[in-house]
Every structure is written in structure tokens, then in C-alpha cells.
């Protein structure tokens, strides 16, 4: 496995591989890897000749400086995991390498970035879009893999690819969960022992909501779910929305013709967890 720190070096290597006709799969990450990330690497390994992964904690997508400071950095462990999973190329730049000049570009994603995460994390998706565009330009992959746990981010990236006419296939991969249902996340390591025992209730409630979705209106389902979750120790719901999977706009009533998704953000202590579930049977 090859490790690159500069854009020039990794771009040169990728250019050589593409001249040889190699099909490149790419998994962008912020490190602190877990089985969810590795599942993307394995799928990319099956579907491409070469697998590249980036590890970069992107400072411009953090609207809370404390979150950036607390984000785990585990580069050596990450590299070992990637090597075992069959990754070929790791690109792990420093912030100055990615952003030698101040970033001023602003994207217009219509209403996609105005709801849910966008409502509570100002500038977050613009920062995500800027770094993903830059990484796709550097790696020039044929296929790029993203987990469905960050469902709104996935919608933003698809829109970015459309807006910028980037020649890449965006491949969505199912959320990977712990045996008790908790969505795998780099933030899970920050949970205390008691918080970790409480956390699986998030997915249990989402599954209950799915089971009842066709029978009750969205507002009532959401109210009941939030009430139940807020009764859990140290838990506070930031948002819970039932939305159109394409537009991400709220859905008031069940419509079998519209793919629906329930998306949630919850604080457990000071750890913010997100999750989502498809509501279509």
C-alpha cells in the first residue's frame, strides 16, 4: 500500500495508473476508521482494479470548533486497517496542502442544504462540497463510495456531481451497524459506558416509526418518537424529520409513490449522533 501526503505526488501516481487503463475506486474519509468505512473499502476492492482512500479531517466543514478539536486522529491505526482491507493508495494531506489559500467558494444546493443538518450546522455542507470536489479532482476516480448513514450528505454530493459535471459514479452503501443496532460512527468512542447502553434506542425508535408510517400522519409519529427519546437518560433530540428521499423536504402523510426517509440527530450527553432509515417497505 502506498501513502501520499501531497497532491502532486498522488496525482502523478493516479495519472500513471489511468494511462495503464486501471479502474479506480475511491473512499473519502476523515479517518478514525471503523467497520463501516472498511465495508466501503471492501466493496471498492471487489468493483475496481485500484482502491484509493483519503484521510483528511476537513476543518471547513466544522461549524463548532470544539467538534474539530475533539475529532479523533488515529492515522497509524487507520493505515493498518486499510492495508488489511486491501486498499492500494492512501492520501493523507495536511490542511495547508488542501487549502493553501482562503476558501471563498459558495455552492447553491437549493433546498437540499437548508433542512435537517443544514438548519443546525451553518456552512457544513458547503465545506463538505468543497473538499469532496477537490478530492474528486485529485483522485479522478471512476467510482466513489459513500455510506447512507450521512444520507443528506449523500444527496448533497450527488447534486455536486451534477452541478460540476464530474465524471464519477457515486455509489451509496448501506449503513453498517453494531449488533445492537447503533449506527457505526467515529463519535461512538466518545460515549461513556452508560451512554453507549442507551444509544441503541435511537435505531429501535426509527424501526418502530417505520412499522407505523403507513397508518399515522408524520406529525403524530414524530411527536411520539421525540417524546420517547427525550425521556432517555442524557438524551436530547435535535431534529427528527420524515422526508422525501429525493428532495429532502418534509412529508406530512404517507404516499406509497414517494420514497420516504426518517432522519434524526440526537445529543447523548455532549456527543451528537445521526441516523436514518428508509420508510418504504
Describe the structure.
With 281 residues, this protein is α/β, with parallel strands linked by helices. The protein has 2 domains: 172 residues, 3-Layer(aba) Sandwich (Rossmann fold), CATH 3.40.50; 91 residues, Pantoate-beta-alanine ligase, C-terminal domain (Pantoate--beta-alanine Ligase, Chain: A,domain 2), CATH 3.30.1300. Helix content is 40%, strand content 20%. Helix 2 links the parallel strand 2 and strand 3. Helix 7 crosses helix 8 and helix 10 packs antiparallel against helix 11. The relative contact order is 0.13.
Summarize this structure briefly.
By secondary structure, the chain is of the alpha/beta class. Helix content is 40%, strand content 20%.
Topology:
Layout: E1 2-4, H1 7-19, E2 24-29, H2 35-47, E3 50-55, H3 65-70, H4 75-85, E4 89-91, H5 95-98, H6 117-120, H7 124-139, E5 143-147, H8 151-164, E6 169-173, H9 193-198, H10 201-212, H11 218-230, E7 235-244, E8 260-268, E9 271-278
Parallel strand pairs: 1-4, 2-3, 2-5, 3-4, 5-6
Antiparallel strand pairs: 7-8, 8-9
Amino acid at each position: 500500500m502506498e501513502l501520499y501526503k501531497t497532491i502532486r505526488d498522488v496525482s502523478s501516481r493516479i495519472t500513471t495508473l489511468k494511462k495503464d487503463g486501471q479502474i479506480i475506486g475511491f473512499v473519502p474519509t476523515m479517518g478514525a476508521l471503523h467497520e463501516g468505512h472498511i465495508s466501503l473499502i471492501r466493496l471498492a476492492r471487489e468493483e475496481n482494479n485500484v482502491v484509493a482512500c483519503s484521510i483528511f479531517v476537513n476543518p471547513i466543514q466544522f461549524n463548532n470548533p470544539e467538534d474539530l478539536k475533539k475529532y479523533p486522529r488515529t492515522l497509524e491505526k487507520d493505515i493498518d486497517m486499510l492495508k488489511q482491507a486491501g486498499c492500494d493508495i492512501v492520501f493523507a494531506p495536511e490542511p495547508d496542502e488542501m487549502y493553501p489559500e482562503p476558501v471563498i467558494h459558495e455552492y447553491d444546493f437549493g433546498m437540499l442544504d437548508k433542512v435537517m443538518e443544514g438548519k443546525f450546522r451553518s456552512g457544513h455542507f458547503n465545506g463538505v462540497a468543497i473538499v469532496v470536489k477537490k478530492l474528486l479532482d485529485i483522485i479522478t476516480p471512476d467510482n466513489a463510495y459513500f455510506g447512507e448513514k450521512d444520507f443528506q450528505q449523500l444527496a448533497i454530493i450527488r447534486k455536486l456531481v451534477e452541478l460540476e459535471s464530474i465524471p464519477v459514479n457515486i455509489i451509496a452503501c448501506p449503513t453498517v451497524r453494531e449488533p445492537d443496532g447503533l449506527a457505526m460512527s467515529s463519535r461512538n468512542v466518545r460515549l461513556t459506558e452508560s451512554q453507549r447502553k442507551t444509544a441503541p434506542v435511537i435505531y429501535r425508535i426509527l424501526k418502530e416509526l417505520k412499522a407505523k408510517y403507513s397508518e399515522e400522519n408524520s406529525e403524530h409519529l414524530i411527536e411520539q418518537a421525540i417524546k420517547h427519546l427525550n425521556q432517555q437518560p442524557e438524551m436530547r433530540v435535535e431534529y427528527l424529520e420524515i422526508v422525501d428521499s429525493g428532495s429532502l423536504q418534509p412529508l406530512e402523510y404517507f404516499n406509497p409513490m414517494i420514497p420516504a426517509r426518517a432522519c434524526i440527530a440526537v445529543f447523548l450527553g455532549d456527543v451528537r449522533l445521526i441516523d436514518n432509515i428508509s420508510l418504504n417497505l
